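User: Quick sanity check before I run a bigger batch. Here is a single chain. Can you write out its predicted 3D structure?
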Amino acid sequence: MAYIIGVDIGTSGTKTVLFDESGKVIASKTIEYPMYQPKNGYAEQDPKDWADATVNTLKAVVSQSGVSKDDIKGIGLSGQMHGLVMLDKDNEVIRNSIIWCDQRTAKEVEEMNAKLGERKLIEITANPALTGWTAAKILWVKNNEPQNYERCRHILLPKDYIRFILTGEYATEVSDASGMQLLDVPNRCWSDEILNALEIDKSLLGKVYESCEVTGTLTKKMAELTGLNEGTIVVGGAGDNAAAAVGTGVVEDGKAFTTIGTSGVVFAHTSNISIDALGRVHTCCAAVPGAWHVMGVTQGAGLSLKWFREKETAKLMGVDEYYLMDKEAETVEVGSNRLLYLPYLMGERTPHLDPNARGVFFGLSAMHTKKDMLRAVMEGVSYSLRDCVEVFREMKIDINDMMACGGGGSSPLWRSMLADLYNCPVKTLASKEGPALGVALLASVGAGIYSSVGEACKQVIEINKIQEPSAEKVDEYEKYYQLYREIYPALKNSFSKLSTL
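Assistant: Done. Predicted structure follows.
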């Protein structure tokens, strides 16, 4: 039996999982670490924390498992995207990593648009200039910490810093590099035009690989520290969402997944490059060679339900609060007794790109109860996720197979809403490992256990539940969804005025 390892370098911690070749979890270990916020809107982490967590979780799963190190054939790396790691000539970290949720770079986004133009940026990088992405962070260091920028000899993403620690190689792969805004996404290579315009030296960047390609092998030092064999392969891996796509089997046209966490994500695979000229969704290279993915984001998905939750009642009853909310909302008919909810508690990304948008209950009357409002919240989030799918359809990306992930995916009622609004089956998986499984499967391809990413997924991914759409509810939801789509445009100017009061 062959074994493979998936390492997921997340924001709250690093999780390392040892799988057998069938995808069964043999051992798992997570180590957490802090995030630092030196100023309002700043978010940083110490790359040494990621390195220590990776080495110690690798050591733990190898020692716990009882598996011979000779049978562990490869390592895949997943990680939080967009973070900036800068190394000096001695490969020492120059400053804490500025991570994905940092928002200090508004001026640098303006600089990027001025130097390249919004249309050119979207044409080359497939996305508008964004404060959280890596290019703007590089410019911020250049503009605000010139002494640090002057010392910089290598720029890496979080998981790619871990690759360097494990293998000594400066490398990245296409899915994570897509989130830097320095990659020519259609052509899957660094963009000389972008780099020249922003005056960033190409030699600072690592070599770009496909996600299942071997990028290096474990050094003697790392082998001794982890208990693995020197020479164990490390493949490209993937950014967290691209890794989750492989871990859920979303590696063919027509397949997608919806994640309902604090925010909501709809993610679809496409074998043809498709870019939204309005920048409403993100397009990146997929972890599948020669393919791409598109991703829509609704900011206030699970956040809306958390805001409205029945915490105290659930505590008194001794049940999970989300289970109780599901049961309450189930007693209300489709449409929540003519009550609609806009889930824009944190502004909105897809499809409106409006930081001023805010949450709204529309149609509230004296006859409505809390459970009507609860169902309206769940439906409103589902309508917002359907908005993402509608943008995909405009881009000629059809979806006929949807996976449900994240906390919201465990709700039978929410899954039924999504099935009816998407008008396609919504499935859940037997495995909950997501990104770690995804990059382990990429490692299995690099190690030759499977011939392709598609074959690996077919052999390993198992469906747990399938929620079919209801023809009657599909028609009923459509009426409410079309009305929902009219509310934001009617309030857009009012949201803007509200933000200035």
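The longest strand covers residues 13-20.

User: Great, the batch can go ahead then.
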